[in-house]
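Data deposition worksheet. Section B asks for the primary sequence of the deposited chain exactly as it was used as input, without tags or linkers unless they were present during the calculation. Section C holds the resulting structure in token form. Section D is free text for depositor observations; keep each observation to a single sentence. Incomplete worksheets are returned to the depositor.
Section A, Depositor: J.P.
Section B:
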Amino acid sequence: MSFTDDLSAEVTKILKDQWQTRETSSVPETPDLRLGNDSAKLTGTVLYADLADSTGLVLEHRPHFAAEVYKCYLACACRVIRQKGGVITAFDGDRVMAIFIGDNKNTSAVRAALAINHAVVKIINPRVKDQYPKLADTFSVKHSVGIDTSELFVARTGIRGANDLVWVGRAANIAAKLCGLRDGNYATWITDDVFKVMHESVKTSEDGRPMWEARTWTTRNMSVHRSSWYWGA
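Section C:
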């Protein structure tokens, strides 16, 4: 059998095999699923945290500096996510994906997003300026966090020895795309489905000021909300 025939047989098998799907109340890990058409379903809230203009960072600065910024951002984001009850599910260069489940999943994800923004504004940027005082005053680390909630379909993809989980569902795609809706200091973007059910404590400040601004994402004709607020962990 030629290599092309081998690939064709693999594709035919994937398309013809019946799916085995089960409901789960926990975030699955790779060993929990088989490489065949095996899947798990759950309802979860997806958070994507993403550095802004990482291409410019790499092209305009020395490699070790870019790597330090990557490491600082991802270290803070990951620690905040875990501290707020999220489960880290994937890394993609300068971004991290996490899942929140349970009754308070939307509120917890939003609290994580605001705490990540606090880490960027109040911890990472000041420390970078302290370490590199000759850095241009115009430089600052910027980022964006996107959040959505939906039913998720989780499967194992790849080949033996090189595989990972794929998260299929609106929340996984929309949360990732929301990271691209950057506008000034508005670092957190959430869907209306998240906004409607999250706790009042993450909607307004302690003195009653609204923390969110409603917008229409015209590309998807979807109601979203954005915030420039940050909140210490």
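Section D:
The chain has one domain: 18-227.
Helices lie at 3-16, 54-60, 63-83, 105-131, 170-178, 192-197.
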